[in-house]
Design brief:
Number of strands: 14
Strand order of the largest sheet: 6-7-8-3-9-10
Number of domains: 2
Number of helices: 9
Mean pLDDT: 89
Radius of gyration: 22 Å
Low-confidence stretches: 296-307
CATH superfamily of the largest domain: P-loop containing nucleotide triphosphate hydrolases
Shape: globular
CATH class of the largest domain: Alpha Beta
Structural class: alpha/beta
């Protein structure tokens, strides 16, 4: 569906995107990940043909961007893009008209989605009267009402409560099953790990990690321990068997040195902590993200570059 090859974009002295390549096929979800200022939004804007790259190419089913390509794409921006004084239904119908959907059909689709998101009783409310979460739901409806083939979502869970996050997750899986290609840009690594088939992690304008979720976690390392305990675990980052440590309240994710044996580590830690749970796993996507983009330096050490 979408192929991005060797994109580059520079603003004055800032190289925002440097040789970024990625691809997403129909029926797949690609996580576009990275810290603030990594180049994600610039990459998305080049895909949308809002700005032009200095170098590289973007193709849709092997063809460059054309005017009709716009109707193949649905885009949910991170920032609010609604006319706040408009009524909810009128706003949806207006954006539908820009995509060439006849008013009667647009209204039918809108009512279906408003019912799905429990917004039907709000259809005559002004958008400024809605909560942030409900505004986010309206923006999502606008982004998919025209049944796009490529859906680009920038922080789609922003402002949603847990119940609506589950609803949106279910809808994304339905879109995937219907053969939509989805780019999911987020800071929520747990959501990306659960939803995405593959990731593209960008830092300082460059791709630092890419591939399928399972492959990435396997490639990054298997010598990872999840530890639940009672006691003072502040010593864990400096333990001789530990290469990297992410410490939370009574929980730690430890990446052990290659020569360390988990059963020996467990025996040693049991002398200092009341161990509730000890299991060896592949590292979480959150741990990989923190290590590759710097993370909390007081809790982590730099790891070897992933090749």
């Amino acid at each position: 569906m979408l192929t991005v090859s060797h994109l580059r974009k520079q603003y004055s002295t800032v190289l925002a995107v440097d040789d970024v390549s990625l691809a997403v096929n129909r029926g797949a979800i690609l996580g576009l990940l990275g810290p603030n200022g990594a180049g994600k939004t610039t990459t998305i804007r080049m895909i949308l043909n809002i700005i032009q790259p200095d170098a590289g190419s973007i193709t849709f089913d092997g063809k460059p961007f054309e005017e009709q390509t716009r109707n193949l794409i649905g885009y949910l921006p991170e920032e609010r893009g609604l006319y706040r004084k408009n009524k909810l239904l009128n706003a949806i119908l207006y954006f539908a008209s820009l995509k060439g959907i006849e008013r009667a059909e647009a209204k039918r689709r809108a009512y279906d989605w408003l019912k799905r998101f429990d917004l039907l009783t709000y259809y005559e409310r002004k958008l400024e009267e809605l909560s942030k979460g409900n505004q986010q739901k309206v923006q999502f409806i606008i982004s998919i009402l025209h049944d796009p083939q490529l859906v680009i979502l920038d922080e789609p869970f922003s402002g949603l409560d847990p119940l609506n996050q589950i609803l949106l997750k279910d809808i994304l899986m339905e879109l995937k099953q219907r053969g939509k290609a989805i780019i999911f840009s987020t800071h929520q690594m747990d959501q990306a790990e659960k939803l995405c088939d593959a990731i593209c992690l960008i830092n300082k304008g460059r791709v630092v990690l890419e591939g399928g979720i399972t492959e990435v976690k396997s490639r990054y390392g298997k010598n990872t321990v999840h530890l639940e305990y009672e006691g003072d675990g502040n010593f864990l980052p400096t333990h001789p068997a530990v290469k990297t440590a992410h410490i939370y309240e009574n929980f730690a994710e430890l990446i052990l040195n290659s020569h360390s044996k988990p059963h020996e580590v467990l025996r040693d830690l049991s002398q200092r902590l009341d161990i509730r749970k000890f299991e060896t796993l592949q590292p979480s996507l959150n741990a990989i993200f923190l290590d590759l983009v710097g993370g909390e330096k007081k809790l982590t050490e730099a790891m070897e570059p992933v090749k």
